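Field notebook, page 169. I keep forgetting to write these up properly, so this time I am using the form the group agreed on. The chain and the ligand, nickel (II) ion, are recorded exactly as supplied. Prediction of the bound pose follows.
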Amino acid sequence: MIYPIVKYGDPVLEKVATPVTVFDDELEKLVEDMFESMYAAHGVGLAAPQIGISKHLAVIDVTFKEDPSAKLVLANPQIIHTEGRQRGNEGCLSIPEFREEVTRAKKVTVRAQDVTGRWFEKTGEDLLARAFLHETDHLNGKLYISHISALKRDLIKRKIRKMVKAGEW
Ligand code: NI
């Protein structure tokens, strides 16, 4: 099932999500639906709050279907190590049509549970490191625009308000 993506302005995106405690068939189905919804929206990462489900759960595939082994499920993820710096453009499916340069760590280690509840650690660099940070932020109610200047953030918010008024958001 493809879920519609929740857009900026919905309070679910700025709320701290609740931990995943049950690892059952229902969770497996939700994860499948999240991958499907992410691909349908042409994204490489999706957090559960972005489909209106306030759970500590995210999916990532920085290869966008090219490498099935690159598909990652992060339940209850925690960033345990960061290293270096990278600058690059970042966007979010919940803030469509906007992109901004965001400085992030270059190398990031995440600790999370997979869809069966097994804990694992994974280190990613470049785009994967960015995805780990971006998606983990989502679960803590934080959007990438909190990492850009107040000036740029206000400009985006103003444009979105206009789009909301025009019925285009
Ligand atoms: Ni996002």
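OBSERVATIONS:
- The domain at 11-165 is CATH 3.90.45.10 (Peptide Deformylase).
- The CA atoms of residues 8 and 25 lie 30 Å apart.
FOLLOW-UP: compare against the apo run.
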